[in-house]
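User: Predict the complex with zinc ion.
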Amino acid sequence: MIDAKVRTNILRAVDGLKDELVQLVCDTVRIPSCTSMPEGSNSGDTTVDMSGETRVNHAFKRVMESCGLETDMWEVAKGRANLVGIWRGKGRGRSLLFNGHVDVVPPGPVEKWTVADPWSGEIIAGKIYGRGSTDMKGGVAAAVFAMKALLKAGYRPKGDAFIQSVVGEETMETDAGTGAALQRGYRADAAIVCEPSSPPQRFSINIASPGLVLMQVKVRGKAAHISMRSELIRPGGLGAAVGVSAIDKTFLVYQALLKLEEEWGQTKRHPAFTRPGHFVLFPEVIQGGDMLAASIPEECYMIYIIWHPPQDTAESVGEEIKAHIARFAQTDPWLRENPPEVYVPLFSWPPFETSPEEPICKAAAIASEAVFHRPAMLYGGGFTSDASFIRQAGIPTIVMGPGTTGVAHGFNEYIEIQDLVDAAKLYAMTIVEWCGI
Ligand SMILES: [Zn+2]
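Assistant: Here is the predicted structure with zinc ion placed in the model:
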């Protein structure tokens, strides 16, 4: 339990810093910190200015140092620097690590931002608008201000507290970002990834996320002049002797995968994921044929995003899907002779899982109740994040942060100012409960 007087002091200290916290989020949102996507991705753009991440970290560093935290900032690639804020404890307490990323996904067409410009950091009706407000400069800023509030209230933790503010999360450059920070020795007895964790409830405690796998399925047809189409569709027509539409065949495979996805909704379970249907085979791209070629398309492919439960691996779900497609291909004369090519995993992001019995879950729940006066909610779900890599390093990890996942990566991204203030309170309370003061 958190002492009532300590609680009151902390809440008051955070409230007193509200304007500064809002200012920091506005300032950092105004720094475009998109990075180019890895080679091979459609979004790859080597002309992107890569200095944004570092400029954001400079802004965080200034605030950390102004309140007396130690900092460590180091380059991992030309012009790209990670930052760690360090608050040394008095000793004999558990250490705690906060983690967040400073890079953001591109805003997309600016005209789609109908409420405010993506780099405006404009405040409208209690919300700060802009790319990266929720995902996730707000979360990092809240962790900084949790420490600042504790310092202002005159407290110092027994265990060490760290904030990793890293590059390259959205571009999956884990080795440059979170991986590099862990490698440099910034580890702790538990970790909180400050990504948005609402819904299902504001500031839910996310204890598991699915693994992500990318897959490509390539289906071949047989090119022919478009005038042959009638031979393909009329009863008794010449059919495959003259041509086969790769697009038609792709949709058969698509339907088969849709069936498998429905089956997963019933069969793939994990105790942390209370709602069925969380594990999906989501077709992100379907592409085939040539514009104005007037031919029966020879080739079509689909790219899938697969979310699998933590107990499966990218390889095991890959084998499962390959077997399903192979079985299905036997039911179609053309696909039997020309089986779809399945490339999986093209890419994978590991799942993460922390037992609800881990002490960090209990500490976060106590902190949450102290701020919100209602039971905390532990859940499995959400989305992939650096929690996977921190957990792989052996650190019990949760995801708990301000903002809602519904606005991340979308147009008109915003964060509620109330969420920022509450996040700082929640983090400060978790430091007290976990590290001791
Ligand atoms: Zn994020």
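The CA atoms of residues 217 and 342 lie 5 Å apart.
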